Amino acid sequence: MSVLLEVIATTVADARTAAQAGANRLELVTAMGEGGLTPSVGLIETVVAAVDIPVNLIVRPHSRSFVYDADDYNVMLRDVRAAKRAGANGVVVGMLTGDGRIDREGLGRVIEAADGLAITFHRAFDEARDLREALDVLLGLDAITSVLTSGGKPSVLEARDMIGALVRQASGSNCTVLAGAGLTVDAVAGFVHDTRVQAVHFGSGVRVGGNGLAPVDPAQVAQVRALLDAA
After folding, report:
1. The domain 4-230 is classified under which CATH number: 2.40.30.20, 3.20.20.380, 3.40.50.10420, 3.40.630.30?
2. Phi–psi pair at 179, nearest 5 degrees
């Protein structure tokens, strides 16, 4: 089976470009410079209508931290329900307790609101106090279909051993390790070979000039797709 390629989209044009160039799935965000915040309903609806690949969207109310209060959760649950109504394939969320564990109660509320949508736990995972322990928690929840991680490092390319260990830990489960942050076109084939990941996530690595605020570069997406197909 070919490795899944997820690409971040911040505009309708990004979404169309990535889909046409060979992405299998989109993560739709706004404020990429802040690590991604919840996009508007208008953007969600327009992107879902514009492409024929699954659209997952980040549900993140602010970039202050991954520890959320009651008001934050009220906002997030409304956004999750709105995403479902807008036709999203899934939501991308992440929440921690003050001591660096998965916020099970908050995540449970999101799972209930998602009502069957695919759920990716995002890179809040990389700030957990123990990645193996955090993954165990997520593997116990059938609703969690992916975990986006850089292996606890700023760049996933610095965490090959950890990514490989997480892939083995998740083997046979309903949850896929989605490796992202710092991946480049030149490094992706070797990285996939070394870690055996079945899904990769690209943001600035497939954008014009490697700039996270620039448009998606169709040639780079197509090159990654070809490399993954040959891996």
Report:
1. 3.20.20.380
2. -90, 130
